[in-house]
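4.2 Preliminary Data

To establish feasibility before requesting continued support, the project team ran the inverse folding procedure on a target of 216 residues. The structure was first converted into the token representation described in Section 3, and no sequence information of any kind was made available to the design step. The complete token record follows.
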């Protein structure tokens, strides 16, 4: 059951403004100084990026590139993942911490930048083009944005326990043997669960940040 089943909608975030642009350095750069409730959408990013300042590249008009400005949630990264996976449908799953996966291949990514009680949530989702080894989502960009707006409202107004439960159901990481790559250390183990803060538990160890590689 998705987050749409949650009855209490009193804390839902209302989208106040959508900024549509052609080319930008990054939708995150534009959204950072906008008020809560804003959404920035662009056709092309000249300096798109993901986690750890990795480059995110796609030809103009081939991906959904959008950043949402919303109130911080206790498990914001997982709430954003749930919103995106449910918006994408097509059995898109979640690889901890922020990858969207379709049939075992990455179809999109999420970048969060928090400041005080505000967080900017950036999405990059491949639609009509994908780099080698990645996947494309067979969905219209306008429809996907509308669905994502609705799901962001639901996920960021839901109680943390509801988000965690839904994230577990959508996860493609839990129950798998993984390799954890940390600064100065790499180890392997079973991805057991996520804790109440959204951290991944691997072989009894709590991982707050790091690269996760699925082994099988």
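Position-by-position output of the design step:
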């Amino acid at each position: 059951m998705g987050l749409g089943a949650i009855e209490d909608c009193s804390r839902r975030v209302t989208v106040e403004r959508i900024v549509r642009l052609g080319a930008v350095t990054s939708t995150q750069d534009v959204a950072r100084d906008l008020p809560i409730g804003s959404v920035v959408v662009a056709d092309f990013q000249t300096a798109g990026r993901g986690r750890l300042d990795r480059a995110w590249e796609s030809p103009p008009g081939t991906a959904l590139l959008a950043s949402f400005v919303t109130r911080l949630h206790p498990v914001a990264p997982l709430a954003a993942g749930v919103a995106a996976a449910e918006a994408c449908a097509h059995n898109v799953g979640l690889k901890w911490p922020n990858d969207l996966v379709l049939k075992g291949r990455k179809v999109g990514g999420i970048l969060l930048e928090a400041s005080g009680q505000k967080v900017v949530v950036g999405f990059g989702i491949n639609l009509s083009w994908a780099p080698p080894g990645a996947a494309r989502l067979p969905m219209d960009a306008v429809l996907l944005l509308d669905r994502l707006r609705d799901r962001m409202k639901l996920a960021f107004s839901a109680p943390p326990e509801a988000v965690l439960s839904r994230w577990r159901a959508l996860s493609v990481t839990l129950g798998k043997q993984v390799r954890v790559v940390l600064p100065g250390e790499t180890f392997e183990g079973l991805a057991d669960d996520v804790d109440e803060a959204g951290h991944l538990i691997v072989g009894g160890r709590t991982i707050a940040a790091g690269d996760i590689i699925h082994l099988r």
